[in-house]
Fold this sequence. Notes:
Membrane topology: Single-pass type I membrane protein
Protein name: Tissue factor
Low-confidence stretches: 1-23
Oligomer: single chain
CATH architecture of the domain at 131-230: Sandwich
Largest sheet: 4 strands, antiparallel
Shape: elongated
Strand content: 25-35%
Subcellular location: Membrane
Structural class: alpha+beta
Domain Interferon/interleukin receptor: 125-231
Distance between the termini: 179 Å
Number of helices: 6
CATH topology of the domain at 131-230: Immunoglobulin-like
GO molecular function: cytokine receptor activity
Amino acid sequence: MLFYIGYLVFVSSLCLHGKVSGDEDFPKARNLTWSSINFKTILMWQPKPTNYVYTVEYYALGKDRMKSRNCIKKDVVECDLTRQLTDLKETYIADVISEPLPGQPFDQVEFPHTSSERFCPYKDTIIGRPDFDVEVNEAKDKITLHIKDPISAVSSGNRLLNMRDIFNGDLQYKIIYKKAESTGKKEEHTKSNTFELKVDRGKSYCFNVQAYIPTRVYGKQLGELSQLKCSPAGEKSFFEEYGIRVIAAVIITVIIISILIIALVVILCKRSQNGSGGPDKEGMSLRNV
Length: 289
């Protein structure tokens, strides 16, 4: 009886030792994070493996589990799943499995693994910054923005799809604008790729644009903000060019100079009259003789 109890204790200690040793040899992946911009989707995790490798499996909810072709027994800490998550509206979960090196003996039936949070490309990918052109009409009182849809990492046939191809009517754009010399900003939305704005004639306006998906949950509706672009300023009027103060100073200076000139002319005229207006003493003396 004592022998049997001792045997059970010995076997239990071996099992516990094997479990602990296995966990030490193949630690679980941690800090699993999805990084996705324009549907370029990468799963990242830690730590960097030492004497073991990782395999990534993924599945859509309610569907079969699959191994990522490029992430089987790799000593890396990220996996590009862009080409595997082809149904953009599905919700996916990925598992990162810690496994022994190829050819290394092992006695574990199930290896340590860690599951990611749920990820839906259509709802979760970040839309990158859009580009746009600024057009000013001849009258310089209207500005039109021509917005270019960002290109995605999703291909169809021989071309990459843009955001309009994928989101269709769900895609809008948020426009943030202001006068170039002002700090106050205004916002507008457009469902198309053009935006027209009536402006003060000849004034320069500056714009930022970002994708806006109103059907998403708050916090994931807006894409990256574009670079700032400004319309060229029109020709300035004489008053805008020099300013009221400068013009007033010039006018006052001209008036003062004019007064001084007039005063000088008056003084010279009076002196001239005083010099030639009195009787000629020498002439009077000759006449008296």
